[in-house]
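Hi F.,

I've been meaning to write this up properly since the lab meeting, where we talked about keeping a consistent format for the predictions we share between groups. The idea is simple: the sequence comes first, exactly as it goes in, then the structure tokens exactly as they come out, then a line or two of notes. No screenshots and no reformatting. I'm using this chain as the first example so we have something concrete to point to.
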Amino acid sequence: AHHPHTHTRAMDSHPLVEFVHRSATRGQCDAATGVATGFPIPWAFTLATAGQSPDLPPSIRNIGFHSVDATGFLFTTRGGPGGSAGPGENASGAPMVASLCYLTGNYPKAGFEEQWRAEGIVEEVDMAALTAVAPPDADLQVQIVASAAFATAREATTGSVAPVDGDGRLVLQGSVDDKALDIVVTLTAAKQKKGELEPAECAQAGFRAYRLVPWRVEVLEGGPTWPQGPMRHEWRKVA
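Output, unedited:
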């Protein structure tokens, strides 16, 4: 007998088509478009890029999928793909390589576990092209734009955005900052709801879209009742 999480259907020859099929089966994305279902169903991955310099460790961060299609994994973030610990927004124009890891299941509680890994090139995606697939996450847009507006207001009042932490992120000081940021978030969310949050304002705040185009993808899967034991499948792009 097959375990309910083993795959009796043939594995697709395209890894991202296989990934979307499995994710859609779990309700994490739309089967036809590969667009994330969204809250409260989690669909996120870990992205690793180079650090800011060769002597620093790699940057690793968790990011939600926007969508997945045959071209790659699409996601949105503030600033560069590697975040504050990464190599910035790749101003040099050189290709940015990255690794992705996605884990689902609970071994042995759920009876199965899948771990997807991919390596490839990260390329920036025009926001209009991303929106044509599906609108970006509204909450993330609001958070990024509101944070930038708060920093601007702080600098106008005190002459500096400080205090910030070692990675350049804003540090809130007590209830006054908490309330001020809450007000900015509320106002920004209202603008977004009315359709008044302009793309230029989002871009200026650092809202970016990217696609990881993989040259290699693999999935490791298994469960305690699988008679064949853990299995590994690998796809490689042929030049």
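Notes:
The longest helix spans residues 138-158.
The CA atoms of residues 175 and 181 lie 10 Å apart.

If this format works for you, I'll send the rest the same way.

G.
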